[in-house]
User: Fold these one by one.
Assistant:
Number 1:
Amino acid sequence: MPQPSFPGPWQLGLQTPASPVAERLVSFHTFLMWVITAITLFVLALLLVCIFRFNEKANPVPAKWSHNTLLEVIWTAIPVLVLVVVAVPSYKLLYFMDRTNEAEMTLKVTGNQWYWSYEYTDSEVSFDALSLLPEEIDLAKGQHRLLETDNHVVLPIDTNIRILFTATDVIHAWAVPAFGVKLDNMPGRINESWTRPTKLGRFYGQCSELCGVDHSNMPIVVDVVSKEEFQKWVAEKKQANADSAPSNVKLAAQ
């Protein structure tokens, strides 16, 4: 399996994108870095001009004027233009990441205190994912403290996936940075987003809304596999659920 996507020590910048939304987020972030760098250098240049040209030594006699109409117009118009330049791609990205009209499957994510419940509504597969705390279990080689769960979300590559978010108790937030997905799970409400995994591998996330004493123990692990492997995993999950069902449920199904 390819290298997992998770935060690294002293990491700068965003995680490597693994979906179209994340790719656009990284691109927008890079664009904003150029914008704010240009603004910072411009303000720094103005400060240096003020420091060296208009200090007491260079200007022993203070200037008597206090207003300049052209200057007032310029420093009002330029910030407005900057905001427009930032707002246009920002709104385009917000609409793009909101939802997909071409969903090929649906994943429902329910936040609980303090674990995640997952339901593949198209496949009738559901399970809970609990945190593997270091105090409770020895982590295997390659596992990461506070980022591992007993059950992983499995998603097929190159598939438009509708994600529904809700909660049973308080507000949680399901966030996987590599997918560019981060949305609140609110009790009594269904929020919606989407993703399309473009890379095979293991991706990590965490609850991003303070939800109680074990908020930090709600990690997320997503395995992106081929479509063939995903169908095999679904079949295995269904069989496992059928084998573990109570006998009266099995009889009713028959």
Note: DSSP finds four helices and ten strands in the chain.
Number 2:
Amino acid sequence: MYKILAINTGSTSTKVAYYEDKECKFHKSVSHPDADIKACKTLIDQLPMRLEIVKGFVEENKIDTKDLSMVMCRGGLVPNLRPGGYKVTPRMEAELRSGNLQPHASNLAALIGLEFARPHDVPCCIYDAPTSADLSDIAEITGMAEILRGSVSHVLNSRAVSHKVAEEVFHQRYEDSRFVVAHLGGGISFSAHMFGKIVDTVADDAGAFGPERSGSLPLLDIVEMCYSGNYSHEEMRRKVRGEGGLKGLLGTSDCRMIEERIRKGDSFAERVYRAEAYQIAKGIGILCCAMKGQLDAIILTGGVSYSKMLTDWIEEYVSFVAPVIVYPGENEMEALAYGGLRILAGEEIAREY
């Protein structure tokens, strides 16, 4: 029996789970108040606070660290990774601590895992980092010589759901399947899965606007705003991530509240919500074209896909291409544990960064 500790750090939460093979025995999600986050001057300053949550979880549930097979962590924004597992090596640790990466809470998970695993001599890995993909050389080209297009998407959940849909719906391997996945969360990203590889993606700042993201915008208008003198660098970042999208337009990112407003006759709320569905459909269409329309299904996942109103509108636009399968929620803790199981069983090899 394999025993796995899974760690997932989000912008306002730390999640921990303990698995014995495929069974989740214990799990915990701790929300961090804004005051606690703001009290930390840098992202790395949050490390002790979050590490104590993991240690406390292990102690509360009387988990014997000597029996752990592996610690599995959400991957951070380390560039140039491929989907799957990577060992958390000193080189990766140095990169995560360097300050060179885009500051994101996901960068903390591997550092927490390593701090916990190292004294107990337990292997520590990340799995399906947000930056991992198998982009072709033409997918990297942009119209600006200074910028190459990398890949950032919700790989962990999107790839896990793709495995499930391949096996449960099509009774085939993920490696024999072709899907376009739209992850509908606070931000919305898209990924094209072809025969076990993620061949293209659309990031949450490059496609549809989401509950808290502005999505892609007319660039010349953004240039004018940036140089208008009316907004600081930090204010512009917040308009793109955190205060954009539904939150910026309707004052809330809670889709349940928006649906209630629509049912009560709020025509502007309906217009905005329909616009989100329209933009999500366009994002799906981009990757359907990248796959030349040859796919088994379009998958809608993430927390926002619980909104049947929204998913029905999306399906109206895209169902002519392929069947639409709605797989709501996020399966990230399970995805980490199952990835660790595949590594431990020798079905996959954990790479070195």
Note: The chain has two domains: 3-132+332-352, 138-322.
